[in-house]
Amino acid sequence: MPLLPLSDALSRYRSSVRALPTQRVPLELALGSVLAEAPKARISLPRFTQSAMDGYAVRADDGLSPRTLVGTAAAGTPAEVAVKAGQAVRILTGGVLPAGADAVARQEIVERTGEGIVLREAVRKGEAVRYEGEELVAGAALAGPGKRIGAGLLAALAMAGVDTVEVYRRPRVAVLVTGDEVRRVGEPLEPGHVYDANGPLLRAWFVENGYGEPVIAYVKDDEAALEEAMSAALDSADLIVTSGGVSVGDRDFVPLVADRLGVRQIFWKVAQKPGKPLWFGMRDGKVLLGMPGNPGAVLVCLAVHARAILAQLEGETGEQPAWRSGVLASSVEADAQRDRLVRMRVDTTDGAASLELLPRQESHMLSNLASAHALVWLRARDVAFARGEKVPWLPI
Ligand SMILES: Nc1nc2c(c(=O)[nH]1)N[C@H]1C(S)=C(S)[C@@H](COP(=O)(O)OP(=O)(O)OC[C@H]3O[C@@H](n4cnc5c(N)ncnc54)[C@H](O)[C@@H]3O)O[C@H]1N2
Ligand code: MOO
To answer: Which atom of ligand 1 is nearest to the CA of 252?
Structure first.
């Protein structure tokens, strides 16, 4: 079977994975979720015309004439008086601008004179004033559907009085780590055993990306055990990720067992290095992503493939993964058959992202992640990539 080009794999996710149902949630629980509506401001912002400075609310037309102080307006405590010609109100940042006033003289340009004040500089109308609705008016849409809610947008919604939002349900994730040779760190190692890197990598990636703790099961290279674990995962999760057992070895049971459980294969084997044996299938809207056992391959399958699938499951608009652009700091070998996904260091001292190749790129190696910032996409071709060539990359 020919290998599927990486860009075609990304298109397959877009054509086959549908968004999960939506639900209304309190705003404070919506961090990291994707909007399924365009929430509208419940109030105008600013809600009232107010002072931007600590100083005095005045009438600009009074110029430099002395003014009598007639009250105080603090944030949350409006002055009960209007400012007439020749008058001023002491006002603090965020205080309601009293009727009659049309400017604020910040206190640095004001002298107190017993009962009143004198301005050292004239102020213009509107100076140090924030007008009601100047940022947005009640009813204005704050963000569109498909937008992921980060800390900033969450705060902007709260400020505009939006207390609940309609979002796509977040995917539940299950992880199956397969392999007779795999032992958890801290356990004794017998000949032929390896420490588990994929369990920690998968767990940490999903947690780091806001999906919470995935359910993780460790499964022997045994058809019956895998069938039981995969069946349970398909019943409980929206995205099931397996590691190992997906190539052509005698104990590579993932494709076989997935097929037996009614998971429809959409592709198997991608023209990428590392991560070639990647398997992707679906059952009733649920996604099974069979990642190879090599930890370097798992890293690529997470950053590129899981990212793209999660965006689909969560109704996120905008291309995911969101590739950035950088420039190669030195020439890098290409692979004629497979796209390479290479770990590099990013240097931004000259402004643009300069990508420096790191040693130890093989799919069974992870140690260069101590210095890597970027996963760089080098498309399959015959000639090497030249120094200075522009290439897409993802932060890792
Ligand atoms: N004849 C062929 N052999 C292989 C091919 C091929 O096309 N023809 N593809 C190779 C490629 S590329 C990859 S990638 C691997 C993927 O194989 P599997 O997905 O079946 O993975 P395993 O064989 O189970 O494991 C591969 C490797 O990774 C180690 N491993 C597994 N799990 C973990 C873990 N949790 N933590 C750390 N290391 C793990 C495992 O011990 C193996 O060394 O197949 C090639 N073979
Ligand atoms: O695809 Mo494998 O991950 O190259 O070693």
So the answer is: 20
Q: Decide whether any atom of ligand 2 lies within 6 Å of the 292 Cβ.
A: yes
Query: In sequence order, what are the beta bridge partners of 138?
Result: none
Cα angle 59, 62, 68 (rounded to 5 degrees) comes to 80
Q: How far is CA 132 from CA 135, 153, 195, 275, 338, in A?
A: 8, 21, 61, 55, 58
Quote the ligand 1 centre to 157 CA distance (angstroms).
46
The total number of structural domains that make up the chain: 4
Q: Do 206 and 307 have their domain in common?
A: yes
pTM for the structure as a whole: 0.95
Distance CA 168, CA 382 (A): 43
Same domain as 293, residue 174: yes
Summarised one tens digit per residue, pLDDT across range 154-195 is 999 999 999 999 999 999 999 999 999 999 999 999 999 999
The CATH code of the domain that includes 27 is 3.90.105.10
ipTM of the complex: 0.98
In a domain, residue 318? The reply is no
Residue 214 C-alpha to ligand 2 middle, in angstroms? Answer: 24
CATH of the domain at 214: 3.40.980.10
Say yes or no: CB of residue 243 within 6 Å of ligand 2.
no
Q: Note the pLDDT of residue 351.
A: 84
360 CA distance to ligand 2 centroid (A)? Answer: 14
pLDDT over 90 at 1, yes or no: no
State which ligand 2 atom lies nearest to the alpha carbon of 294.
3
Quickly state the pLDDT bin for 344 (edges 50, 70, 90). Answer: very high
- Residue 183 and residue 250 in one domain: yes
Provide the pLDDT for residue 2.
86
Does residue 243's CB lie within 6 angstroms of at least one atom of ligand 1? yes
For residue 149, how many C-alpha atoms fall within 13 Å in the half-sphere facing its CB? 30
| Torsion of the alpha carbons at 346, 351, 153 and 166, rounded to the nearest 10 | -50
pLDDT of residue 347 exceeding 80, the answer is yes
Q: How far is the CA of 115 from the centre of ligand 2 (A)?
A: 82
58 belongs to a structural domain = yes
343 lines ligand 2 (CB under 6 A): no
Last residue of a domain, one of 267, 291, 313: 313
For position 119, which CATH number holds? 2.170.190.11
